[in-house]
Amino acid sequence: SLTDGPVTLKILQNWVPRVSHYFDKDHYTYAGHQIVIQESIEYFGAVVWPGALALSQYLESNQEQFNLKDKKVLEIGAGTGLVSIVACILGAYVTATDLPEVLENLSYNISRNTQDTNMHKPEVRKLVWGEGLSEDFPLSSFHYDFLLATDVVYHHAALDPLLATMVYFCKPGTVLLWANKFRFSTDYEFLEKLGNIFNTTILAEFPESNVKLLKATVREN
């Protein structure tokens, strides 16, 4: 139901000016922690996209609505790891996943930003959308309270496996939070497919960045 309608937000410029001499590191502040993200120019997944900023900001500001403390959180297409790091700071048990070639940079960012001893130690795992899900993440032992995804929908061929992955992990009780910059007709087509399967609500829109943030849950019979 879209009765309340989405809130309109602006992505806050809450990264701090670079004091670092390295061109490839960005400094952000969320939930009282300074986060340093190393980007990698070789891969799409290794750059911080606006959806990640939007979801990080939203999770930080809406902790009562989405309390991540001691919850099990899976991020798919985690990229640089910013959202997983923020979820970890907010108290979640986080599993950050992405393609094999992205994992080294992802692991580096997550470990350097979550060494604080009072956080649950996050896990980094390979997950190729739609492949080997039941072998690598058998439902008998893996259940997540939250499934997070940011800027996973763009002009690529893996949209059907992505949707299948969302369906696989979204069980009754799981909340999917998906933030995406909407650029192409394929983005809106994916949104429509998602709405045909799940109960979907647009929680927030960031018009300056063309980002929408959606919540999706399983339709229970």
UniProtKB/TrEMBL annotation:
UniProt GO BP: methylation
This protein's record includes keyword Transferase: yes
Cross-referenced CDD domains: AdoMet_MTases (cd02440)
Keywords recorded for this protein, A-Z: Methyltransferase, S-adenosyl-L-methionine, Transferase
Superkingdom classification of source: Eukaryota
One Gene Ontology term of the molecular function aspect: methyltransferase activity
SUPFAM superfamilies (UniProt xref): S-adenosyl-L-methionine-dependent methyltransferases (SSF53335)
Keyword Transferase: yes
Name of the protein this chain belongs to: MT21C methyltransferase
Record lineage: Eukaryota, Metazoa, Chordata, Craniata, Vertebrata
